[in-house]
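PROTEIN DESIGN WORKSHEET
SECTION A - STRUCTURE
LENGTH: 115
TOKENS:
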């Protein structure tokens, strides 16, 4: 599998292969790329960012840690059910989503001038 390491701006082109029971990574400029390549091969994860509606608010959210890529659609579906209320920056909207250890937290708020 070929992938680009996104851990730092260098963007090393990684080649990840399973040889026997071992996952081998090449093309990395540092050891963080090895960890990233193995993670991408075994179970790719991403920080999820989105927007939810509060009470006269437009709120940006993000997950506190990366979640499995395969779960992102479920995370976005969950966000559609978020209560429409007054939020504060830093407030946790959902805790430990899908038992992943990730919380969904409010990162910024804008007033919704449409309402
Ligand atoms: S392998 Fe290391 S140097 Fe290369 S992009 Fe990843 S973190 Fe940066």
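SECTION B - SEQUENCE
RESIDUE ASSIGNMENT:
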């Amino acid at each position: 599998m070929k992938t680009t390491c996104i851990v730092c701006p260098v963007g090393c082109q990684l080649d990840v292969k399973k040889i026997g029971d071992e996952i081998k990574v090449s093309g990395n400029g540092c050891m963080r790329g090895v960890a990233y390549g193995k993670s991408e091969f075994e179970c790719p994860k991403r920080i999820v960012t989105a927007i939810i509606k509060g009470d006269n608010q437009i709120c940006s959210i993000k997950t506190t840690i990366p979640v499995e890529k395969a779960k992102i659609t479920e995370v976005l579906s969950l966000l559609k059910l978020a209560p429409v209320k007054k939020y504060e920056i830093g407030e946790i909207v959902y805790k430990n989503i899908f038992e992943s250890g990730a919380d969904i937290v409010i990162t910024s708020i804008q007033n919704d001038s449409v309402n």
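SECTION C - NOTES
Residues 2-42 form one domain.
Residues 16 and 37 are 6 Å apart (CA to CA).
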